[in-house]
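Blinded run. Sample ID left blank on purpose so nobody reads anything into the name before looking at the predicted structure. Input follows.
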Amino acid sequence: MTKTIAIVGGGAAGTFGAIAAATHDRSAKVIVLEATDSPLDKVRISGGGRCNVTNNCFDPAELVKNYPRGHRELKSIFSRFQPRDTVAWFESRGVKLKAEPDGRMFPVTDSSATIVNCLLNAAAEFGVDLKYQSRVKAVRAVGERESSPQYEVDLHGESVLTCDRLLIATGSSPQGYRLAESLGHHIVPCVPSLFTFKVSDGRLDGLTGISFDQVELLLAVGDKKFRQTGPMLITHWGLSGPAILKLSAFAARELSDSNYRAELSVNFLPGQKRESLLRRLAASRDHYGRKQVQVDGPLPIPKRYWSRVIQRQGIPEETTWSGLTKAAMDAIVGELTNAQFAVSGKGIFKEEFVTCGGVNLKEIDFKMMQSKLCPGLFFAGEILDIDGITGGFNFQSAWSTGWVAGSAMAG
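Blinded prediction complete.
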C-alpha cells in the first residue's frame, strides 16, 4: 500500500522534511499543508532578502555551542546532517553558497529567491504535493495508539486527510502548539529570543551608529549572570550587535521573567589589564602635552565615544594631557573597563523572529525526531524548544531536524 506522509507547515523545516521523505521513499505520497498562499516566507525575508542559509561551523561539538536550548539533543542530529551536508545538498542542485568572514553562509547570488526556488523545484521534482491555504483545525490519532496509528487531519472546509505519518513543523505558530498539546505533548512557554536592549543613558545619547569591534559583556538578571564577547553597536534606543544578541538568546527566559530589567557591565577594552592602561594614559601626558584630552585619546576607542567618556567624568573641555590628574586617569580606565548600564526593555532584531520555548524536548526521540508519546508523529524546526543565536544557526536546526524527521518517516 502507498504510504501517506502529511506535513503541517510549509516553512524551512516542513519543506525540507517533505523533500527528505520523498527522496527516501519515491513511492510515498507526501503532502505539505501550508496555511498561507506562499510557503517559505521566512526564508524569503531572512538576511535582508539574502537568506543566511547556514554557518560554516562544520564541527558538531562547536556547532551546538550556538544553541542556548537544545544543544545536547542537536549533537546527535548534527552527526547525521550538519552544515557541510546542507552546503553539499544545495550545491548538488546547482546552488553554491559562500562564507562571509563571520561564518555566515549565503547563496552566491545574494538572493533568497535562489534558495526558495531550489527548494520548491526539488519538492516538485520528487512529487511533493504542496497544498496552499490549507489551514489545519485539528489532528487526532486513529487506530491502535501503541502500535502504529494513522492520523486524521481536519482541514478548514470540512475535509479530512488521513495519513500514516504526520510531521508538525509550524514554527512558533500558536496553532502548532495547540495541535501538539491535543496529542498529549507539553509546551514550554514561549518567550522572545534574539533581541536588542533598551538602554536610556546619557552616555549613549547622540551616538547612534558607533560600533565597537570587541567588547566583553556581563549581564546580571536577578542572581544569574551571563557573559559574552563580540561586536557591539549603539542604536537610538540602546545597544545592539552580535554580542548583545547572543546575550539576549542565552538569557531569554530570565530576561522575560524580570520584565526585561537587568544590569549590564561593559568592558570596552577586553584582554587589557588596568595597570597597562594606566601606564598608557600616563605616557600620553608626555606624548600629547598641551593637546586637549577630549580630542586625542591613545586607546582603541571610537573618538566620539572617547570624548563622551571624558565629558561624563566631569573633565573640563579645555583640560590638556599635561594637566590630567592620576584620579582622572583612574576614573577613565574604570569607565572603559567596567561601564554599568541599566537595561529597561527590549527591541526586535530586524526581520528575525525567534522564540525560545516549544514542544518539550524530553518528549522527543532525537534518533528520528519522533514523538515518544505518539508513534508516527514527528516534529521539526522551531516548534521544538530549540533556538540558536544569529548567524544561520536557526535555519541549520530546521534543515537538520527536517531532514532527519523526513528520512525517518520514509523508513
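Unblinding after everyone has recorded impressions. The chain has a mean pLDDT of 95.
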